[in-house]
Structure formats: structure tokens, C-alpha cells
């Protein structure tokens, strides 16, 4: 039986901030909730502030998953850079979403969700059908905020109801619930939510971004996959982290059936997604383009083509994607070389090990490919006819940049690599080339506007965004919080863990690979890998699926959380060198020297955020995070 906890609230609420589209603010003159819920207009404004508490998914200053791991490095002094370098603190936690009074604190969001659910039926001038939909959306948001806290803090108190201000102080001092209890509660909320949500959005201009059945079903799949994963499923490291009765917060008995529950939830979500009109994105052009360019744009467009069919849940409000495109954008047009003010900053840098994680052109890891010169990958070479749509012919670069899978070229801009953009979209035989060396069109300009490593996450930049003289214009898009390829790969992962390799597991991996021009996993490994039987075992296929997720979803904020739930973060992120090329050098020979720009740091205690010492002192029943 789950515990039911409450959270205290005041009758005068202080929130709110304005957002685009349907998200509005609570009017300043509304002082009590009686006035808020006495008519539809006021209730609607309060309702949409619940969406306003969602994180800024595309904001690299707000979403720790974008920069707080090992996918991105920069010379900027962002808080996430401190986080990735192991500078977390219980005295003043970084990205503190617990109780710092910040407007995005999920506990405030949960308070308002509870207020809304308790009072929405008081509104007189609404149909019951509309109330039921809003109730379903509020339950979805309530589930999401619990999930958000669960990923950060592990076992958390379930916030099911609010506490009246008249209750005693002991009632306020609530403790953590076990992970299993939180998961059960969130799944229950989502099941209730799914029943009342629409299958898709029909009034797109007004409602895109609001919850639907596919969104809620995918969140349910995410929650159950997290519960089944090694971080939470029988992890003996946390055996001593218990409540006052000695019950471990994280179940110490591995339960394989959790993977089957997660797989079933994934399949349910896929069915809802297909019924709602969601399919893998493919790039359409009126121009005669090569297959190579289409393969690149299939992935890039799945991210940046606004509200395309692959996006299950898109961010519909501020922040726009203009800022993240600004820092991820390599300068490529020679007409504007050397310009600074008003142009892009370009300091969102991907480290060398991320560039190396992408497969060879044969669809297997470069250190497994029997035909790939892995030992000579840093040797100087020139672009050739076989790579003519990926790398400039005759351009002196390195072997690492040739003979790679299309997702490498879709995801990254690199020295010598061609970039498809609005200036030359009609002819992919005459594309701009990235010149990352000092003095090159894409290279160092000044001490602020430069890329350290020589790699830009190009997949985040819409191909119609462009630079002109002292100006930059972004083609904004809906940030893909959830997209179908993520769900396909999650289903393949959960099904493999539950049942082992099967035709169905291969099917969902291969659909994602085929979209980028790759053969199926069984065929690719059998033909090109030094370990041809790898996809035929559960352990081998697990490694392949993990790699597929890290490649397909790179730079979208998934790697940060996947490494945690797989309980691999302390292996990948502990003293990891953030290497790249020497951006200060103008010649090819000197540019291609590996430079170290720092290290990520991660220990076992970093799997969960610490709760600030001030909050622990205020609530003695609240246990500190493990290791803190």
C-alpha cells in the first residue's frame, strides 16, 4: 500500500510567469482560490501555469542533461559545467529543484496540481467533458513532476494531497517513500490520465504541446523502464539506505518481470503513438538530392522540422531553440568570415570521444569494423569521391572523418565535413565546408566566440537558420522532448532484457537504423564486425542497443539519464578527458594534435542529488541522499 503524503500551501499564491501560446499568467488581482475557480477564464489561466512549471528542455542553462554530462564541453562558466566536473554540494546544491523557492521547483508545481484537482469541479461555466480533459492533463503533469524528482533524488515523498496551513508542524515533516512506491503511484496517475486524454491534438495552433495519450503512455514507459533498470532494480550498493523501519529505499531483490512490465508499457505507447499519427520522420525535398544527403537530413529533420510526425511531445513555449542553435552553429559561409557582433557564438563543443562513438559506414563500432583503419583514424588524409556528399573532395582532414555512418554527418560538424543548409539546398554537390582551423571560416575568432574541440552538434541547428553580415536568424522548432525513435529503442531494450534477442527486438532497432541508411544489426555484425555473433546474445544485444541510444539520441539530453539508469555513469564520467583538436592552430598538421580541455568527475554519490542542509535541518524526517 502506498503512503499518502501532503504538501503545505498558502491561500495566497505567488507564482507565475508568462509563456508563449496557450500558457498565460495568473492575474495579479486574484487573491484567493475562490476567485480563481469561480469562472472558466480564471481557471484556464491557472490551469496553464501548470505547464509553465515544466523545465526548459532546450535551455542549456536550465536543463542539466544537456551540458552536465560528457556530451558537450565549453569554455563558458555555466553551472552545468561545474556540475559535470563534480562540484555538486549539499551546502548549496547545483540545479536544486527541491526547496530553494525557485519558480520551477516541482514541489510548487505539485502543490498547484493538487489545488487544481481539488477545485476544478467548482467552476460553473464549463462542460464536464472539458473538465475531464483538464483533470487528465493535471494528473499527467503531476506524474511528470514526480518522475522528474525521482530521477534526480531517487526515493522521494509522494505528494498526493496538500496540507492545510492549520495543521501542526509534525504533519509537515514528511519522509521519503521507497522507489517502488513512487513508481506505482506515478503509473496509477498515468493510467488515470491516459483514459481522459485525446489521442492527438486537432487544434494545432492553440494546443500543440499539451498532453495526449501517446505522451502520457510514453512517460509511463519511461517510468517503468527506469524502475526495471540496474540503478533501481536490485542494486545492492544501496542496501544500507533505509527508512526508519529498516526498509531499503531501493528494492534489493532483482525482479526480471519489471522489464516485461516496461516492455508492455512501451508497446502500449507505440500503439498509442501510431494511432495518434506518429511515424519515423523522413526528409522531403523538391530537389534532386543524393541518398547520402537524405539520410543525413532524415535524422537532423527529426529534431528540427517543427512539429513533425515523429515528435510525440514537443516543447511549445519559451525558451525558443534560438539560443541553443546559436551556440551549436558552425560558421560555414565564406561570405561572412571574420564577422563577430550579432553572429553566432559556436562554443557548444562535442568532445572527441563522442565523435568516435558513431559507427563506421558499415553500421558497426569503428573499433570492431574489420575494414576500418581504426589504428590510423588520426592520420591525415583527403576527402575522396566515395565520401563526396559528406567530406569536401581534396580537403585535407583525418581518417576519423571519412567512411562514417550518416548519423555522424547528420549530428556533427567537423573540419572538412560538408554542411547542407538553406544557401545551397538545391544542389548538394556544391555545399559549404567546415574549416575549423584558426583563420578558417568556422575557426577561432576571439576569446569568446570559438569552438574548443573542433566538433559542433549540428543536428540541433535547423538547416534554414542562417548567418549574414553581423546577424543571425534562427528557424525555431519544437524541441523534441519525446520522439518515436527513442520509444522504439526503449522497447527493444526492455524486450531484450525481458525475453532476450528476438525478431521483434531486431525489428524496432532496425527501423531506426534503416532510416539512416544502415543495414540491420544481425546482417551488419555478421558481415563487418570482429564479433559477428554479438547481436545473438542478450548481453551483446544490450551493448548494441545502448550504443544505438547514445548515437541516435545524442545531444538531446538522453545520455545523461540513460547512463544513470544503466548504472554506468561512474564508469563513463569518472575522470573522463574532454579532448579535442587544437583550435589555436592554423595548419592541418598542428590543428590535429589532441588537446585536453578538462575532465568530467563522477562518484557513486553523484547518482542522486543531495538535499540542501538547510532543508534537512528544517525536516529531520527527511533522509539525506546516499553518500552525502
UniProtKB/TrEMBL annotation:
It holds the Pfam family SusD-like_3. It comes from the Bacteria. InterPro entries: SusD-like_N, SusD_RagB_dom, TPR-like_helical_dom_sf. It is found in: Cell outer membrane. Keywords: Cell outer membrane, Membrane, Signal. Residues 310-628 form the RagB/SusD domain. Residues 107-201 form the SusD-like N-terminal domain. One of its GO terms (cellular component) is cell outer membrane. Its main location: membrane. Belongs to the SusD family. This is RagB/SusD family nutrient uptake outer membrane protein. It comes from Neotamlana laminarinivorans. The lineage of its organism: Bacteria, Pseudomonadati, Bacteroidota, Flavobacteriia, Flavobacteriales.
Amino acid at each position: 500500500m502506498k503512503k499518502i503524503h501532503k504538501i503545505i500551501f498558502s491561500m495566497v499564491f505567488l507564482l507565475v510567469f508568462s509563456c508563449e501560446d496557450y500558457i498565460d499568467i495568473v492575474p495579479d488581482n486574484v487573491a484567493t482560490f475562490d476567485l480563481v475557480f469561480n469562472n472558466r477564464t480564471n481557471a484556464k489561466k491557472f490551469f496553464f501555469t501548470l505547464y509553465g512549471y515544466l523545465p526548459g528542455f532546450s535551455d542549456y542553462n536550465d536543463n542539466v542533461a544537456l551540458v552536465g554530462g560528457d556530451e558537450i564541453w565549453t569554455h563558458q562558466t555555466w553551472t552545468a559545467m561545474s556540475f559535470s566536473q563534480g562540484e555538486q554540494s549539499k551546502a548549496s546544491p547545483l540545479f536544486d529543484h527541491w526547496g530553494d523557492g525557485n519558480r520551477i521547483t516541482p514541489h510548487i508545481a505539485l502543490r498547484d496540481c493538487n489545488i487544481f484537482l481539488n477545485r476544478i469541479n467548482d467552476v460553473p461555466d464549463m462542460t464536464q467533458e472539458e473538465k475531464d480533459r483538464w483533470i487528465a492533463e493535471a494528473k499527467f503533469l503531476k506524474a511528470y513532476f514526480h518522475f522528474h524528482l525521482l530521477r534526480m533524488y531517487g526515493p522521494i515523498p509522494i505528494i498526493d494531497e496538500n496540507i492545510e496551513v492549520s495543521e501542526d508542524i509534525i504533519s509537515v515533516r514528511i519522509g521519503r517513500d521507497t522507489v517502488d512506491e513512487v513508481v506505482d503511484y506515478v503509473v496509477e496517475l498515468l493510467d488515470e490520465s491516459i483514459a481522459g486524454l485525446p489521442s492527438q491534438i486537432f487544434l494545432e495552433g492553440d494546443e500543440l504541446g499539451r498532453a495526449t495519450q501517446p505522451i502520457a503512455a510514453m512517460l509511463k514507459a519511461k517510468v517503468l523502464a527506469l524502475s526495471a533498470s540496474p540503478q533501481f532494480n536490485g542494486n545492492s550498493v544501496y542496501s544500507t539506505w533505509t527508512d526508519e523501519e529498516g526498509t531499503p529505499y531501493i528494492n534489493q531483490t532483482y525482479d526480471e518481470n519489471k522489464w516485461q512490465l516496461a516492455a508492455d508499457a512501451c508497446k502500449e505507447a507505440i500503439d498509442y503513438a501510431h494511432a495518434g499519427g506518429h511515424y519515423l520522420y523522413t526528409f522531403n525535398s523538391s530537389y534532386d538530392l543524393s541518398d547520402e544527403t537524405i539520410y543525413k537530413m532524415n535524422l537532423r529533420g527529426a529534431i528540427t522540422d517543427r512539429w513533425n510526425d515523429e515528435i510525440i511531445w514537443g516543447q511549445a513555449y519559451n525558451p525558443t531553440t534560438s539560443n541553443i542553435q546559436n551556440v551549436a552553429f558552425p560558421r560555414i559561409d565564406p561570405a561572412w568570415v571574420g564577422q563577430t557582433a550579432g553572429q553566432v557564438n559556436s562554443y557548444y563543443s562535442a568532445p572527441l570521444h563522442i565523435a568516435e562513438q558513431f559507427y563506421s559506414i558499415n553500421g558497426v563500432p569503428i573499433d570492431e569494423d574489420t575494414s576500418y583503419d581504426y589504428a590510423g583514424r588520426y592520420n591525415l588524409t583527403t576527402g575522396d569521391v566515395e565520401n563526396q556528399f559528406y567530406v569536401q573532395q581534396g580537403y585535407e582532414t583525418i581518417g576519423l572523418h571519412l567512411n562514417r555512418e550518416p548519423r555522424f554527418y547528420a549530428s556533427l560538424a567537423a573540419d572538412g565535413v560538408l554542411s547542407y543548409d538553406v544557401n545551397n539546398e538545391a544542389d548538394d554537390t556544391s555545399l559549404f565546408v567546415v574549416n575549423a582551423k584558426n583563420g578558417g571560416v568556422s575557426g577561432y575568432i576571439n576569446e569568446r566566440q570559438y569552438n574548443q574541440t573542433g566538433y559542433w552538434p549540428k543536428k540541433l541547428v535547423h538547416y534554414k537558420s542562417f548567418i549574414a553580415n553581423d546577424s543571425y536568424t534562427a528557424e525555431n522548432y519544437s524541441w523534441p522532448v519525446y520522439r518515436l525513435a527513442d520509444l522504439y529503442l526503449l522497447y527493444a531494450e526492455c524486450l531484450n532484457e525481458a525475453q532476450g534477442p528476438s525478431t521483434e527486438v531486431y525489428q524496432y532497432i532496425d527501423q531506426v537504423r534503416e532510416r539512416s541508411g544502415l543495414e540491420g544489426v544481425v546482417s551488419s555484425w555478421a558481415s563487418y564486425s570482429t564479433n559477428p555473433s554479438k547481436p545473438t546474445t542478450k548481453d551483446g544485444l544490450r551493448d548494441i542497443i545502448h550504443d544505438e541510444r547514445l548515437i541516435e539520441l545524442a545531444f538531446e539530453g538522453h545520455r545523461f539519464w540513460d547512463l544513470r539508469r544503466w548504472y554506468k555513469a561512474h564508469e563513463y564520467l569518472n575522470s573522463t578527458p574532454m579532448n579535442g583538436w587544437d583550435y589555436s592552430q592554423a595548419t592541418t598538421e598542428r590543428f590535429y594534435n589532441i588537446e585536453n580541455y578538462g575532465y568530467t568527475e563522477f562518484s557513486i554519490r553523484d547518482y542522486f542529488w543531495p538535499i540542501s542542509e538547510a532543508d534537512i535541518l528544517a525536516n529531520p524526517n527527511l533522509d539525506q541522499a546516499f553518500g552525502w
